[in-house]
Amino acid sequence: MSPSAQLAAGDFVRLAGEDAFTLYFDQFLSAGAKCWPDRWLSRFSGLVEWPGIAQLKAELRAQAGIDSELPVLLANRSAWLMQCAARLLFHKCERVLVTDNDWPAYREILAREQRRANGNVAIVRVRDDILNGAIDAEEVVGRICSAYHVQQCDGLFLTAVSNLGISLPVRRIVRAIEECHTLRFVVVDGAQEFCHAGTSLGDGYCDLYLTGCHKWLRAHQPMGIMFSGRKRSKSLVERRFRGWTRKAASSDPLLRFSQQIDEHRVDDFSETVNVAPLLSTFGALRDLPKTDSERQSDFKCRIANVLEVARVADGAGWRPLLPKESFRTGILLLQAERPKIQQHPPQRLRELFHQRGIAVTTYDEGLIRLSMPAPLFHTDDLDRLRDALVKTG
User: Fold this and answer.
1) Mean pLDDT of 268-274
2) CATH code of the domain covering residue 186
């Protein structure tokens, strides 16, 4: 969790416990801290710059590089946003192409909406070839474009960066398909890309882009974010979400509430809403690099850390899975070489690393994932990692 996100979240809890905050609650969320009494300004420094929901959305748009007129949707549950995106995808398309690089939970949501709409999904497999370094970006683009043509698809669902750290050239894929075929709607899962590998939606290559605030943005408290990326689908997105959010029983509470704030209409009797993620997201945005060059520098440092950890892992009982350079991100996969370690349940493997002060994500068959920080590792950091890998592997 980033320092400013921690400060914002902590001051929000303290404010709620110490003062009659409800007197200023609606004004604070919609207009920002400028509506506060003067006595609060020095006491709750983590919230003084809170600008209100509309400005928070504007800052998120700026981070994603999209037009100020395009909608931004915020929800307590990213799964609900994915459900809406899948529904719009099958509203526009009959056959949607996906890859085996997608997050399994999102694929399940897509499958449910496919059945509901009586649509079709075609799958093209690229993941293993990418992880084994057997294919380059040009070949991936060609394989996906070929599958799109052969399967007679008219829509796309792509993952920009997978949970295993593979960066797909999604923009190149979309543009290549558009040159030769009809492409009615594009949804991109950017949960692992946003604030990590660089997100730029300004050229309108996708209709919807899903992400969240608790991963690389480091706001910690979960909140789903969805950007509308194309002017051509703006009215459709706004119309559909307006209808969905007015049905309280079927809507996400935060999405419904934040949309009402945007439209200056709040129900007299509304569902209790967890607004804390809004404030920690605002704080986390304060800690992000401010310029493109700073963002690129951060990403290069993460890649450098990946290569250093891969170097120390090699020979320590772990095989680095390093795809070709264009697919790399700040996520590194390591495969245990010893059969005994491969047989460990993921939770047990995670505990072994945790006992040595290393946080990893673990999978079956001795596969672990490490997410790299932006600052370069020091020699002591690498020695500690090597020691943990040797003793665990």
Assistant:
1) 69
2) 3.40.640.10
